[in-house]
Amino acid sequence: MTSAPSTPNSAPSADTPEPDVYPPNPAFAAAANAQPSLYDDAARDRLAFWETQAERLHWHEKWSDVLDWSGAPVAKWFVGGKLNVAYNCVDRHVLEGNGERVAIEFEGEPGDTRTLTYNDLLAEVSRAANAFTDLGLVAGDRVAVYMPMIPEAIVTMLACARLGLTHSVVFGGFSAGALRSRIDDAEAKLVVTVDGQWRRGKPAPLKSAVDEAVDGAESVENVLVVRRTGIDVEWTEGRDLCWHDTVDPASPEHTAQPFDSEHPLFILYTSGTTGKPKGIVHTTGGYLTQVSYTHHNVFDYKPDDVYWCTADIGWVTGHSYIVYGPLSNGVTQVVYEGTPNSPDEHRHFQIIEKYGVSIYYTAPTMVRTFMKWGRAIPDAHDLSSIRLLGSVGEPINPEAWRWYRDVIGGGTAPIVDTWWQTETGAIMISPLPGVTTTKPGSAMAPLPGISAKIVDDDGKDVGNGGSGYLVLDEPWPSMLRGIWGDMDRYRDTYWSRYAEQGWYFAGDGAKFDEDGALWVMGRVDDVMNVSGHRISTAEVESALVGHSGVAEAAVVGATDDTTGQGIVAFVILRQGVENTGDPLIAELRSQVSTDISPIAKPREIHIVPELPKTRSGKIMRRLLRDVAEGRELGDTSTLVDPGVFEAIRKA
C-alpha cells in the first residue's frame, strides 16, 4: 500500500516568491471530509476499508465477499450484492427528505435555464424508464446516447441505470462514422439524440449524423429525439420518436429494481493503439462505491456547496463526476451546455458568480486558455465563492497550477490534481484537501485504498527520485471489467506488460521526487492526450490514408502549451498527386474531422517525400516527435537512410 508522501522537512523561506509546497489551511483541514485516519484505515485492512465505503450506499441485498480476484485480471467486487444505481443517485435523497434540494442548475448556451430538484429528477427519470420499457427494452439491452450537455442526457443515463440497460454515451462532437462503429460494436437497440445542439450561438445539426449512422444498422429499432434547437430534421416513421411525445406523457411513478453488483452499467469507447476504439466495460456496485467515495473525499462536498465539473458526458469524467459520483452524494451542481467563450470569454466566470459555484473541476487546457485570455477577465467577476479547485485529464504544469490557485482560487483554494483514466473509472491518485501538503504539478499520492507503483522495465521499484512506468498492483472497485466483446485484447492491452507480476499497466510514465511525491509524466504508448481527450495515432493515420491522394502517414503528439499535446502529421502523397499546399492540407484536416472528430484535426500537416524507417520497416515516430518539437535528433543509427530528415526539413 502506497501511503501519503511525507511533508518536506524544510519550508520555503519567507522571501521565496513562489512556494514549493502548499500546506493545508488549518480551518479547512479541521472541517474536511477526509482526515489522515483514512490512510491508516486503508493500510490496516484494505478490503475492510472498501467495505466501509460501500456501506455509504443503499444496497437491496448485502454482498457475501468484498472481492473475488480468482478470475484475474477480471475482478468481482461486493460479490452477490444487489443495488440500483439510479435509486442511489435519486430516490434515496427524496426518501430522506431532500426532494426539494436542487440537483441540477442547467445553463443553456443561449441563456435559457432550468432548475431540477431531486423530486423533479426522480419524476423525469421515472418517465424515461417507463417510456423505455414501453419500447420493449429489457435489462441487458444497450442504448447509445449521442447528446449535448442538457438535462435529458443525464435523465437518459439514469433511466438506463434504473432499468439495467447498459448505456454507451458517444461524444456529440464525433462523426457519424465514429457513432456507427460504436452502435454496431455494442449492438445498440435505441439511440437517444437531439435535433441539434447550440454551438457559439448557432444551432448545429446532430440528428442528421444519427440518420447517417443508423442507416443499415441492424440492431437499431428506435431513435428518440429531444427537440433542443427547433431546426428541421428528417423523420423516419416507425423508427423515429419525439422525446416530448414519448417520454413526457409517461407516468412519473416507477419502482427501481435491484441488479447484481457486477451487472454492466455502461460501455465507454476510448482510443486504442490499433486504431479501433475499445469498449471499456464498467459494472455497478464497485464503480458506484469508488466514484461516490472519491467525490465525497477529494472534492470535500458539503450540503451547502455548489459543484461544477466542466466536462462532457461523452467522456468518463462526465460519467463519474457529473452523473454518478455527485448525484450519489446528493449534490447541487451546475450543468452548462456551451463553450467557454460563447458569447464571450466571460461566460464561465459569469456562471461561477451567478450560481455561487464553490467547487470547480476543469482541465489544464481550460486553465491555460484562461491564462492566454488574461487575468483581467476573471478579475472582473466575484469568484469569492470558490473554495476548492480540481484539475483533470492530463498533468497540469506548475505555472498553470499556481495561476489557477491565485487567480481563480483567490490565493487560498486548495487544488486537487487528479490522475485517473476511462479504464480506472474513478480517481486513483490525488491530494486530499485538508490532509495533503501539495506541490504544483504533482498528483502527490494514491488515494487511501489504492495501491500504485512506479517501476522500471523489469518491474523493479524506482524509489524516491526515480522515474519509470506507472502500474496499479492491487485491484480496485471501479476498475474496468474488460473490453466489450474482446477479452483477449483486454488482457493484452492492460495486463501483458507485467503479466508475471499481475499488474495493470496504465500506459503513463511517472516519477517520484526526493520527497516521495508522485508526478505523472504523460503517455508512453501511441495514444495522444489532446485537451484531455485520448486520440490514438493509428486512428488519425487511418483517416489521413483514407484520402485518395495519400499513400502513407505518420502521426505524433507534440508538446503544446495550451492543449498539452498537439497532433502533428507527416504525409507521403501517391504517385502523380499534386501537392497544392494549403488547399490540400485543408482537405486532409477536413478528412480527419469527418472520420473522427474536429478535436482530432492535426495542428500541423507536413507533406514529405519519405518517412524515417528502420530496416524492418517500422516508422521511427520518436524521431518525428523530435522534429515536431524542434529538438536535436535522437539516435538515428537504426534507420535505413539517416539522410531522410534532410528531405523532411526541406519539404
Automatic annotation (TrEMBL):
It comes from the Bacteria. One of its GO terms (cellular component) is cytosol. ATP binds at G393, E394, P395, D417, T418, W419, W420, Q421, T422, D508, R523, R534. The modification N6-acetyllysine is found at K618. It is an enzyme of class 6 (ligase). Mg(2+) binds at V545, H547, V550. Residues 539-618 form the AMP-binding enzyme C-terminal domain. Residues 1-24 are annotated as: Disordered. InterPro entries: Ac_CoA_lig (IPR011904), ACAS_N (IPR032387), AMP-bd_C (IPR025110), AMP-bd_C_sf (IPR045851), AMP-binding_CS (IPR020845), AMP-dep_synth/lig_dom (IPR000873), ANL_N_sf (IPR042099). Signal peptide: none annotated. SUPFAM superfamilies: Acetyl-CoA synthetase-like. Acetylated. Deacetylation by the SIR2-homolog deacetylase activates the enzyme. Its cofactor is Mg(2+). Its EC number is 6.2.1.1. GO terms for biological process: acetyl-CoA biosynthetic process from acetate. Residues 1-16 have a biased composition (Low complexity). One of its GO terms (molecular function) is ATP binding. Keywords: Acetylation, ATP-binding, Ligase, Magnesium, Metal-binding, Nucleotide-binding. CoA binds at R199, R200, G201, K202, T317, N341, S531. It holds the Pfam family AMP-binding_C. NCBIfam families: Ac_CoA_lig_AcsA, PRK00174.1. HAMAP family: Ac_CoA_synth. This is Acetyl-coenzyme A synthetase. It comes from Rhodococcus rhodnii.
